[in-house]
Amino acid sequence: RAKHSGRSTFSWYTADMDVDAQKRKEIEADLVKALKFDQFDILYQPQYSLIDNKLKAYEALIRWEHPSKGTISPDNFIPVAEDCGLIEAIGDWVLVHACKEAASWEDTSLCVAVNVSADQFIPGVTEQKVAEALRLSKLAPERLEIEITENILIANTKAVVETLKNIRSMGVSIAMDDFGTGYSSLSYLSRFPFDKIKIDHSFIKNLGKSTYTDAIVTSIVGIGRSLDVLITAEGVENAEQVTLLRAAGCNLVQGFLLGRPASVKSHETLRARQAQDPMLIDPLARQLH
Ligand code: C2E
Ligand code: MG
Ligand code: MG
Ligand code: MG
Q1: pLDDT digits over 219-268, tens only?
Q2: Of all protein residues, whose CA lies closest to atom 22 belonging to ligand 1?
Q3: What is d(CA 221, CA 186) in angstroms, rounded to the nearest whole number?
Q4: Where in the numbering of this chain does the EAL domain appear (predicted)?
Q5: Ligand 1, closest atom to CA 91?
Q6: What is residue 184's DSSP assignment?
Q7: Alpha-carbon distance 247 to 103, whole Å?
């Protein structure tokens, strides 16, 4: 998925590509080193409310600072990590580090969203990992959100529901990521405890260009309403999309228009500059003018 690869210029692996065994071994060995020598980094992407135009949260997105290959995007190594079992250790690292960083933010109203992939989601274990990250970081549970995908709902339904309930009972919220791309079933939706749906960017991309897509997005927002969950739109890149999402009743937006994944420090610098310069107003306010 080249469109996902961000600033990375190097591609080792894509979902559609068969990587030969030799290459996989190489990546695995390199991933072990990456964990050992602390080569992972987390970038943060802002999520804004369409209700009050305010910054609400940052999503934590992992990057691999490879010593010779440069920055590598998650789409290029997470699938390998999932297959070889290293995703657990990488996931633990992300969870603890994202919580620690969020606990250090000046604005204590901001939440942090952490991705947990299906292979990483282990009933009976994941809730303990979440509790441990909260304990180590001293982050208020209400400030943590776990992003899962529909794929975790396929197997072992009962145990998965139990774990989601356990996580929510700590005060942590659950968001359903990439909604509409996976094993979507409306009956599943009503059975699984979660707080938010993130509409996949593939739908947002065609918003305003296809009446079919517009209808799907409006329907998802409607589902969110009736299930009493918040709706976030992913991959928002232009003002027209924001206008349509507002009209549809979408709650939150995330995408390059509002900010690319970057360090929180650089987001703060930009926001401080925007606040001081009357000519530089934030993207959501600008969209209203
Ligand atoms: P995701 O969780 O759906 O994250 C959103 C992805 O969309 C990010 O790609 C982000 O950079 C990209 N994106 C954001 N806004 C826009 C936009 O306006 N246009 C376009 N075209 N793309 C946008 P990224 O950072 O490369 O991450 C890709 C995927 O890798 C994530 O998708 C997530 O599934 C996975 N991932 C990232 N970090 C982690 C992690 O710490 N753990 C696990 N298990 N998976 C992760
Ligand atoms: Mg996500
Ligand atoms: Mg997504
Ligand atoms: Mg994804």
Answers
A1: 999 999 999 999 999 999 999 999 999 999 999 999 999 999 999 999 99
A2: 235
A3: 13
A4: 24-275
A5: 42
A6: -
A7: 34
